[in-house]
Amino acid sequence: MAASSESILDHIPLFAKELLAGGLAGGFAKTVVAPLERLKILFQTRRTEFRSAGLSGSVRRIAKTEGLLGFYRGNGASVARIIPYAGLHFMSYEEYRRLIMQAFPNVWKGPTLDLMAGSLSGGTAVLFTYPLDLIRTKLAYQIVSPTKLNVSGMVNNEQVYRGIRDCLSKTYKEGGIRGLYRGVAPTLFGIFPYAGLKFYFYEEMKRRVPEDYKKSIMAKLTCGSVAGLLGQTFTYPLEVVRRQMQVVPSAAIGFTVYDTMKSYLRVPSRDEVD
Questions:
Q1: Residue pLDDT, tens place only, 155-173
Q2: CA 129: distance to chain centroid?
Q3: Which of 38, 93, 120, 177 is deepest in the core (most CB within 10 A)?
Q4: Handedness of CA 63, 68, 70, 75 (dihedral sign)
Q5: In whole angstroms, how far apart are CA 88 and each of 18, 74, 164, 185?
Q6: Mind listing the pLDDT tens digit for each residue in 205-234?
Q7: CA distances (Å), 120 to each of 117, 124, 127, 246, 255, in order?
Q8: Phi-psi region for residue 153, left (φ > 0), alpha (ψ -120 to 50) or beta?
Q9: CA distance to 99, 140, 232, per residue, from 94 (Å)
Q10: d(CA 137, CA 166)
Q11: By the 8 A CB rule, do 26 and 83 touch?
């Protein structure tokens, strides 16, 4: 059975393994930090209502009005978006890295390579998945249960969506394709430096880990945490403008699961591929 499994893995294209590993990593990490994401969005968009209540007050308010599932409102759309986003992000990073090395074998080496490949992969992933990110934000912004909707789908003159499909349909009817990509420019402007720096710091950190600890989960979590923190620190003003900040634990978990999945899927090391 093990031999059969290994044989199947050997026939899966490299890009498909990277796509799968990245998608699973992103979905897992996003679900773990979903409650923090919900609170972050409400603090950023409904400042008067939630900032005055503070963190503990906001937690109690969500728990009382929406229950436990309230902390995961919009997470379905978030995971539906993050799986293809993370898959494309990690896979295209590896692909851009290989393409750059092939085009500039004697120039593009070291951290600059990771910075460039990371930036390009971030932009690529955003362009393909932005509408889902917009829908996720709209759903997470809601604080009223859909069961309280009136016939017109409004509560206190505010549009409320019944789910991913309803939100997607209404957003498209209101603004067409342009409506689904509203705000994409500042998002791209923010993701290029953040994604590039995130991969740059992560790969630099991993290079400095002693050989005996390179496969350690704790070492990967530490490298991912520092990479996410530094990437966010250097680009924080841009992140506020584009609204969606990556949470540090999300980056740590994402990188760790991605590298672990690559090992499980028998993705060769970069030294072997390069």
A1: 455 567 877 888 888 888 8
A2: 10
A3: 93
A4: positive
A5: 9, 21, 21, 19
A6: 888 888 888 888 899 999 998 888 788 777
A7: 5, 6, 11, 17, 18
A8: left
A9: 9, 32, 22
A10: 14
A11: yes
